[in-house]
């Protein structure tokens, strides 16, 4: 990497009630071969003792309350791999659980306002390899790639990916099958945000911030689609790796696959997904996308779910809410 201009990178880790994985993630971020300028920990009003745990580990000096507006504490710490460098730890305690979307929105906003060149985004249950940032940044600068991500390796099965690319759907999930798809070390057109995703501030300048109203399940996909719609190329750097639990969620074939598949979410939060799906389809796939999704979900609720009229009506209500970008219906956020 050309060091004539030192690129400033800030990491954002969004966390909710996972203090020990957060600590492991934070340790990995601070061990990077390319040093970060700052780390923004966005704590979505955790109730599991996260601030007390961070204080015990020396990352913060005082426990902040989730009451009122988001609070921030900043502490400067030595950076272990670099004796002559320090890093700023920004602990931001949100006043409520704003989901991944709200957390990343807050982190991106603060990073952008700080003036850094790049923002490195991840959840608290991922672990970046020690050279991940160096590999992402090196390739991004070399190839002028403004939106990149690593290979997301399944924590439990390290020869498999946590998020398998759709263009390899019929191929076995293994590293050996995805590596040949790369061109000069990058699989262009495919990325799985926000799991160690590196974005340039130029992206934020051009397309704005994450849509925080989405809460969970769709905000990262919408941001990627928005970038691509604005002619920002995305790609996965195969020399950069990030450990993460395998994708959760269930997909169900509709009429033996003739109508495709639908994603099944837990009933208590499914409406959040339906609303975000409506927004994404309406903005990026048009009328044909609407027709396809409405038909296959209607079939799912009537056939696969045994004439579940209430579920179908909820789907229609929330899907339309998102498709019209009104977001009036309240999500269940607990």
TrEMBL record:
Glycosyltransferase 2-like domain sequence ranges: 12-56, 88-142
Pfam families: Glycos_transf_2
Keyword Transferase belongs to the record: yes
MF (Gene Ontology): transferase activity
Keywords: Transferase
Gene3D superfamilies: Spore Coat Polysaccharide Biosynthesis Protein SpsA, Chain A
InterPro entries according to UniProt: Glyco_trans_2-like, Glycosyltransf_2, Nucleotide-diphossugar_trans
First and last residue of the signal peptide: none
Keyword flag Transferase: yes
PANTHER family in the record: GLYCOSYLTRANSFERASE, GLYCOSYLTRANSFERASE 2-LIKE DOMAIN-CONTAINING PROTEIN
Official protein name in the record: Glycosyl transferase, family 2
Species whose genome carries this gene: hydrothermal vent metagenome
Organism phylogeny: unclassified sequences, metagenomes, ecological metagenomes
């Amino acid at each position: 990497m050309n060091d004539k201009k030192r690129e400033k990178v800030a990491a954002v880790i969004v966390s909710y009630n996972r203090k020990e994985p957060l600590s492991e993630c934070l340790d990995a971020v601070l061990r990077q071969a390319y040093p970060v300028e700052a780390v923004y920990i966005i704590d979505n009003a955790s109730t599991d003792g996260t601030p007390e745990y961070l204080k015990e580990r020396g990352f913060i000096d005082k426990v902040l309350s989730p009451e009122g507006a988001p609070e921030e504490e900043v502490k400067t710490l030595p950076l272990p791999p670099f004796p002559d460098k320090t890093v700023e730890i920004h602990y931001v305690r949100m006043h409520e659980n704003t989901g991944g979307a709200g957390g990343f929105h807050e982190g991106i906003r603060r990073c952008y306002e700080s003036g850094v060149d790049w923002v490195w985004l991840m959840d608290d249950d991922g672990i970046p390899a020690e050279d991940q940032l160096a590999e992402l940044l090196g390739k991004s600068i070399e190839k002028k790639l403004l939106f990149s991500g690593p290979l997301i390796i399944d924590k439990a099965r390290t020869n498999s990916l946590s998020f398998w690319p759709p263009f390899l759907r019929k191929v076995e999930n293994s590293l050996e099958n995805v590596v040949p798809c790369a061109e000069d070390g990058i699989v262009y057109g495919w990325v799985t945000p926000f799991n160690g995703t590196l974005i340039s501030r130029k992206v934020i300048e051009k397309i704005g911030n994450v849509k925080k109203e989405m809460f969970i399940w769709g905000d990262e996909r919408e941001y990627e689609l928005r970038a691509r719609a604005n002619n920002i190329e995305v790609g996965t750097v195969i020399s950069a790796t990030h450990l993460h639990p395998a994708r959760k969620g269930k997909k169900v074939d509709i009429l033996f696959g003739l109508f495709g598949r639908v994603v099944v979410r837990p009933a208590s939060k499914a409406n959040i997904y339906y609303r975000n799906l409506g927004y994404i389809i309406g903005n990026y796939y048009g009328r044909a996308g609407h027709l396809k999704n409405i038909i296959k979900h209607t079939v799912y609720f009537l056939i696969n779910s045994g004439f579940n009229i209430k579920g179908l009506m909820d789907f229609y209500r929330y899907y339309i809410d998102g498709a019209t970008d009104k977001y009036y219906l309240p999500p269940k956020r607990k």
